[in-house]
Amino acid sequence: MRLLLVEDEPDLAEVVRRGLEEEGYAVDISLDGEDGAWRATTMDYDIAVLDIMLPGVNGLEILRRMREAGRHAPVLLLTARDTVADRVLGLDLGADDYLVKPFAFSELTARLRALLRRGAKGSGGTLRHNDLEMDPARHVVTRAGRHVDLTAKEFQFLEVLIREPERVHTRTELIERVYDDEFDAMSNIVDVFVSRLRRKLNRCAGVKLLATVRGVGYRLAGGDHA
Predict the structure, then answer these.
(1) Nearest-5° angle of CA 20, CA 41, CA 169?
(2) How far is CA 11 from CA 31, 48, 99, in A?
(3) How far, in Å, CA of 114 to CA of 19, rounded?
(4) Could you say which DSSP state residue 100 is in?
(5) What would the pLDDT profile of 59-76 be if each residue is shown by its tens digit?
(6) Where do the H-state alpha helices sit in the chain?
(7) Fewer CB atoms inside 10 A, N or C side of the chain?
(8) Pairing relation of β-strands 169-170 and 217-220?
(9) How far apart are the C-alpha atoms of 46 and 108, rounded to whole Å?
C-alpha cells in the first residue's frame, strides 16, 4: 500500500513514516507543498495524508489539484485548527477525513484503515481471479478455499497484480507501488517476492497463477478474473 505524506515538520514526518512503514505502508514524504502537489498529481498512491498548514502551496490546494487531475485516492487532512469552516472547505474539495493535531498514532492508523476499507467496498470489496480471492480490507487471501499466509509486502505485490490481472506489470512499476521512491529499482527484490508468492499460491492448487513475461515483467494467468 503506497502512501503520500505531505508534512513540513521534518521530525513529525519522520516519526509518522517509521510508524507507517512498520504497519506495512510504503511511504513517500514531501516536506513542502510544491513537491507534494507534484507527487500527488503525477504519481499513483493508494492514500494520501496532507497537512493543511504548509508554506506556499497548502494542503487544500494540493487536494484541489489532485481531484482536478483525476486522482481519486482517499485523502486524510491534518489540521491544527478544528474549525467548521476548514472541514467544510476540505470536504467540498474532496477530502475523505480529518485529523486534528496533535494526534495519537493509533488514531491515525485506524482512520487510514477505515478509509481503505471504504475504498475497497466502493470498488467491489473482494478481488477475485480464477480460484484466488483477496479481501484488502481484512487483509485475507484464499486460494481454492484455503488460506494463504502472506507477509505485508507479499500481500501488496499480489494486490497490485490482482487489481489489473490482464496487464503485464514491469519490475519498476511493482517496486514503485510497494516501496518508497528511495528504493533501488534495479534490485532483484521483485523476483524474490514473485518466487515466494508462486510457492505459497501453488501449495493450494495446481494451476500456476503467476506468469513471467520474459524481458518485461509479471501478470496473473490461469483463468477468469473478476
Answers:
(1) 70
(2) 10, 19, 18
(3) 17
(4) E
(5) 999 999 999 998 888 999
(6) 10-22, 33-42, 59-68, 84-93, 105-122, 152-163, 171-178, 189-202
(7) C
(8) antiparallel
(9) 16
Tell me, what amino acid is at 34? E
CA dist 43 → 48, 56, 226 (Å): 11, 21, 26
Contact 60, 78 (CB under 8 A): no
Q: Which of 55, 13, 17, 51 is nearest to 34 (CA)?
A: 55
Verify cis geometry, omega within 30 degrees of 0, for the bond prior to 102. Answer: yes
Q: Let me know: does 35 contact 12? Beta carbons within 8 Å.
A: no
CB 212 within 8 A of CB 79: no
User: Can you tell me which residue has the cell 506468469?
Assistant: 211
**What is d(CA 162, CA 106) in angstroms, rounded to the nearest whole number?**
29
The pLDDT of residue 41 is 95
Average pLDDT, rounded, for the chain: 84
The count of residues in the chain is: 226
Helix pair 33-42, 59-68: axis angle to 10 deg: 20
Q: Which three cell numbers stand for residue 148?
A: 494463504
Q: Tell me the average confidence (pLDDT) per consecutive run of 10 residues in the chain, 226 residues long.
A: 93 94 90 95 92 91 92 89 71 85 92 76 68 83 90 82 85 75 63 86 80 88 52
3 strand-pairing partners: 27, 47
Q: Look up residue 167 and give its three cell numbers.
A: 496487464
| Percent of the residues in the chain that have a pLDDT greater than 90, as a whole number | 31
